[in-house]
Amino acid sequence: MKTNFEIEENYAVQLNGTHIDLHNNFDFVELSKNGNNISVDFKRTTGDWVKNDEFKSLMFEFKNVSYEYYENGDSEALKEDTERLGEITFFPSDSREINDGFIPQFKPKINDDLIMFFEDGRVIRIGCEEIELTVRN
Questions:
Q1: Are the C-beta atoms of residues 85 and 22 closer than 8 Å to each other?
Q2: DSSP 8-state assignment for residue 44
Q3: How many separate domains does the chain show?
Q4: HSE-CB for 48 with a 13 A CA cutoff
Q5: How many CB atoms lie within 10 A of CB 56?
Q6: Which long-range contacts (CB under 8 A, 24 or more apart) does 41-50 make?
Q7: What is the model's pTM?
Q8: Helix/strand/coil (H, E, C) string of 57-124?
Q9: pLDDT tens-digit series, residues 98-116
């Protein structure tokens, strides 16, 4: 897997030298599919802790997807927990039976998946050739 970003700690990414706090500053909007690609979209959250110069939105585009796994979150969770990313990690594709583990890893290995864990228990796991992160000001 190739990416144009790195994971920082377990809740943020770095794109072109910029730290992007996915847990505190962005809300999950949607997952959409287009052929063999999947997009996961986030928007800047509202709150007085979010800087005015923070990106308005960002999108992870998973290209040439070969694997998808999803778990629904708690149907009784608070709305903000359904939108809030808890952790993000790269994880070996040969361990797809494990969907609750975390590996502190900045860059993916060739056969890794990307897993997103949300505060309500939702899990998005995708294996693909490349993930491109784009941002909008």
A1: yes
A2: E
A3: 1
A4: 0
A5: 10
A6: 42/85, 45/83, 49/24, 49/25, 50/24, 50/25
A7: 0.95
A8: EEEEEEEEEEEEEEECCCCCCCHHHHHCEEEEEEEEHHHCCCCCCCCCCCCCCCCEEEEEEECCCCEE
A9: 999 889 999 999 999 999 9
Residues 6+ apart with CB under 8 A from 75: none
Number of residues assigned to the chain = 137
DSSP 4: S
CA distance 68 to 113: 9
Which tokens in the block code for residue 82? 């359904």
Q: What distance in Å separates the CA atoms of residue 59 and residue 12, rounded to the nearest whole number?
A: 14
| Helix, coil or strand: residue 9 | coil
Please give the DSSP secondary-structure letter assigned to residue 45. Answer: P
Distance separating alpha carbons of residues 13 and 77, to the nearest angstrom: 25
Contact 108, 91 (CB under 8 A): no
Full domain range(s) for residue 125:
2-136
Query: Is 52 a residue whose pLDDT tops 90?
Result: no
